[in-house]
Amino acid sequence: MSEAEKFGGELFAALRERRTVAPLIERQPSLTIDHAYAISLDFLSRRRADGERVVGKKIGVTSKAVQDMLGVRQPDFGFLTDRMLVEGDIDVAATGLIQPRTEAEVAFFLRKGLKGPGVTAEQVIDATEWIAPCFEIVDSRIENWNISIIDTVADNASCGVYLIGEARADPREFDLPDLHITVTKNGEPLSEGYGRAVQGDPAQAVAWLANTLGAYGVSLDAGDVILSGSLVPLEDAVVGDRFEMMLHGIGGCTANFI
């Protein structure tokens, strides 16, 4: 059994059984980023064999605020499946969440595909049909969020589920680095951020994703939803919490945990 099969199977079982596992890098220090992406692809193949369908991709650990929280110093990527999209309240048990945290982001919906290398932010804008306010609910199958870049990459970039607000906007009508997000938790101000928090520009973050995925033979496809990274620090969430975000000038999104 290969490392990818061993750890991919372990993470898949943890996902389905709502439990955590010990950090992979502590048990096998020789793991590299390439090993981690191979594990991630094996993990994904098991989810697809179980009936899930890939509908997009996500960028993780893009902003300094998130990197500081997690102690991880480079971005990563993961895959979005149809079962990860939540419409309405988030039933924590039903969606299989273990130790969720919220992130406020800008979602991109692609009308044209992109494949690196060489993708630019301008090409991302040209390929985008709309952007929208989004909550990504990150979740780690690694115990106590004790992650390295190897662990989060292997664990599908610590993705749990995501919600997209109803508002849709043309990205050509906005200065994306200046997009302003504010977040409340249970009615109280929590955090705020700007588009420039993710690699200087959310479109640049998506270009990074296209180019990084291209090195692994993976493309961003027409019809994909792309989550461009959190503009604010992660916040723990438990049943009973209600998070509301406003992407100013565009619209809002609500994450209500039940």
Describe what this molecule looks like in 3D.
The chain has 258 residues and is α+β, with helices and mostly antiparallel strands. The chain has one domain: Fumarylacetoacetase-like, C-terminal domain (Fumarylacetoacetate hydrolase, domain 2, Alpha-Beta Complex). The protein is 27% helix and 27% strand. It has helices at residues 3-17, 24-27, 33-49, 64-70, 121-127, 149-154, 202-214, and strands at 54-60, 76-81, 101-110, 128-138, 159-164, 180-185, 188-194, 225-227, 235-236, 242-247, 251-256. The strands form two sheets. Strands 1, 2, 3, 4, 5, 8 and 9 form a seven-stranded mixed beta sheet that branches. Strands 7-6-10-11 form a four-stranded antiparallel beta sheet, with no helix packed on it. Strand 10 and strand 11 (251-256) form a beta hairpin. The mean pLDDT is 93.
| CATH class annotation | Alpha Beta
Number of domains: 1
Unreliable stretches, pLDDT < 50, 5 or more residues?
Answer: none
CATH topology: Fumarylacetoacetate hydrolase, domain 2
Straight-line distance between termini = 40 Å
Residue share in β-strands: 25-35%
As a percent range, the share of helical residues equals 25-40%
Topology:
Elements: H1 3-17, H2 24-27, H3 33-49, E1 54-60, H4 64-70, E2 76-81, E3 101-110, H5 121-127, E4 128-138, H6 149-154, E5 159-164, E6 180-185, E7 188-194, H7 202-214, E8 225-227, E9 235-236, E10 242-247, E11 251-256
Parallel strand pairs: 1-8
Antiparallel strand pairs: 1-2, 3-4, 3-8, 3-9, 4-5, 6-7, 6-10, 10-11
Helix pairs in contact: 1-3, 5-7
